[in-house]
Amino acid sequence: MSEAPAGADADPFDRSDAIVGRLQHLAELRGDGDLVDGLSLALGEIVDRYEVEGPRHLASEVQELRRRVNLLLQQRRHPAHVEQLYRIAARLSGVLAYMAVNCGRFGSARMHCREAQVLASLIEDGEMLAWVKSTESFCAYYAGDFVSSVKLAEEGIELAGSGSQAIRLYSNGLARAWGKLGDAVEVEQAIERALSLADHQNAVPGLTPALTFESYGKARLMANAATAFLSAGRFDKALEFGGLVEDHVSQSDSVWSRTLVRLDVATALVLQRSPEVEHAVQLGIEALDASADRPIRSIWQRANELGALMESRHRAPSRDYAERLAQWRRSAQPLIAPESGL
Predict the structure, then answer these.
(1) Which of 12-16's residues contact partners 24+ apart within 8 Å by CB, and which partners?
(2) How many CB atoms lie within 10 A of CB 213?
(3) Which of 4, 49, 139, 154 has the smallest number of CB atoms closer than 10 Å to its CB?
(4) Which of 231, 215, 265, 229 is nearest to 245 (CA)?
């Protein structure tokens, strides 16, 4: 009779405690869903607070969440949760990029955009990739590189198609950059396309947040249209869109939107054929007062542009605005990092 092969007496099945150990680990992986949901809620809560507290106050909170997500990605996770973590990481990096632009930190913004782009590419998140292009265009716009801003917006539009990011890309990106380049025809075409998409998507009529991963609402679109037409020299259209959006910004909690729309309207009132300087001064002072405790780079730029315009054309009637602007600068400058090229 032949001998039994070596090890034949060994039990070929795992011990029960070993199986229980594996089941416990699998249960832990499944339980990661609560942690992922918590991180997603935390990100959403930060976005909701953004316009109330501002980038300087919230950036460290976003950085801490981003570090926490990075640590989680280095550990063994449920495959579905890994994808969710990459999506959250991409959004956190995107939020940091947006905040950096608002603080005038354009180099940091570009680096965070690059990180968000890589993360979104790993999970093939097309909407996030389009959002990143829009934020890169936003960064180039405030850095004064309007040609690059147009190019980046066009790249984003190709990615977005008629999806949720397209309205932002056409209005905040393409139209505003073409406005700075002085091409009113391109501005009009971009705004018409954005309005058509807003109708097609049944966009909300109100003022959606400036920092959002959702589609732009119609009021946000119109605020961008006012800025774009103002830059292109179509002061009539700037005043028209500024008037259309006024009720929405007045009723919203968005201090920045109220400030920026008032600065745009004030500038158009000074530049139109029959200037209304006193009205412009009133709106300009209201804008500065509204944003005194939370200035951002876009407000800094437009407030100073309005001041320079009034100084060159209507120095005496605009003295009150000049004095208020000087006070506002002294308190705002420590909160913003002005860079050259603006």
Answers:
(1) none
(2) 17
(3) 4
(4) 265
Place of tokens 């199986």: 19
Which spans in the chain are helix H? Answer: 16-73, 79-102, 106-122, 126-142, 146-160, 166-168, 176-180, 184-200, 218-231, 235-251, 255-271, 277-290, 297-313, 319-332
What pTM does this model have? 0.85
Cα 262 from Cα 284, distance rounded (Å) = 7
Lowest mean pLDDT among 1-15, 252-266, 307-321: 1-15
Phi, psi angle pair for 76, to nearest 5°: -70, 125
Q: Using alpha carbons only, give the angle 190, 192, 193 rounded to the nearest 5 degrees.
A: 65
* 13 torsion bin: left (phi>0), alpha (psi -120 to 50), beta (else): beta
CB atoms within 10 A of CB 202: 8
**Which amino acid is present at 331?**
S
Residues 26 and 18 sit within 8 Å (Cβ to Cβ): no
Count Cβ atoms within 10 A of the Cβ of residue 131 and give its class: 0-12 exposed, 13-18 middle, 19 or more buried. Answer: buried
231-278 pLDDT tens trace:
999 999 999 999 999 888 877 778 888 899 999 999 999 999 999 999
Give the residue from 138, 124, 125, 36 showing the smallest Cα distance to 95: 138
